[in-house]
Amino acid sequence: MSWFRVARASRRLQRPSLFSSSLSLSRSILNPLRASSHPTPNPNPDYHNPFRQYYRYTPISDLSRDNLKLDWWGYKSVAHISTSVRESSNSEEDKDGGSGLPKAEVSWIDLYLPKQARPYARLARLDKPIGTWLLAWPCMWSITLAASPGHLPDVKMLLLFGCGALLLRGAGCTVNDLLDRDIDTMVERTKLRPVASGLLSPFQGLCFLGFQLLLGLGILLQLNNYSRILGASSLLLVFSYPLMKRLTFWPQAYLGLTFNWGALLGWAAVKGSLDPAIVFPLYISGVFWTLVYDTIYAHQDKEDDLKVGVKSTALRFGDSTKQWITGFGIACISSLALSGFNAGLGSPYYAFLAAASGQLAWQIRTADLSSRADCNRKFVSNKWFGAIIFSGILFGRLSS
Fold it and tell me: Global pTM?
């Protein structure tokens, strides 16, 4: 009898309780990520579990709204990769855990704009404001230089040129994408652009270009006649720039002539004429500045450029790039010093100019030209160089 009781008790200990089984089941349903963190090995390697996809963890912060949908289980799964995939996604640090898939990022375009407007916003690069900053800063420098000694610059002019920079930059990007749509499909960084990827047709891009130019004309008509002619003449540079990479190894210099036209236009909008002793050194300094930052930027695409057959200063300079852009940086700072001296700016300007020199030197010294991510970081940091120069001109003019 005693043997029977011992055997019965041992069977009770070996039998799983209904409560513990229910608890384990509820935990696996309510928290599938935890349940999948310790999977039970499957003795059959060829067995395919159709429910395995629901245990895959995908960070919600890495996906735009359009990339997610609720499946019939109620869990979020990847629907597709939209055009919010970052263009520079081919570097190793941009891969998702080494899986080889591009890493998606959420931008305000995906979150707040209607779906139909998103390709046009991307065509104008509204999610990448660095180009607008680089186009606007020479305008701001020139307007501030044109202010009367001891006075603030014309705020209305600053706002007009800020809006104009946004529109002209968008128009320039549209022209570039229309002319380069065949090349963009072969370059890793640009193959997801709206026209190259087929989200927009060339005709739609052309209509959008006309809309941007019409808005830009509204801004230009608010300036004096001299500035209207000077501003309209810049369109020749804007429309011809995308062709330069096919013709010369110096498209970055041509971009400098285009992007820094505002150094001439800003002064003319305030004064009604040009003072060559002040605005020409300012314009030349901007061209050399562009040669620095856009050569660094061009190193992102040098492998693809070789395959496609387009040219750049990054390919022209090669291993001597840092020596070249060091010379350009020195020429930029020297031209800025000459422009400020001829304009009679006070001593604060030169203190800020020294700080800007340090920022430019940091870019050149620390740039890893073999890393696309670092080249892009250094390129984006130029908005701070422009801000430092603007602050120097502002305080130098107030103290003069």
Answer: 0.73
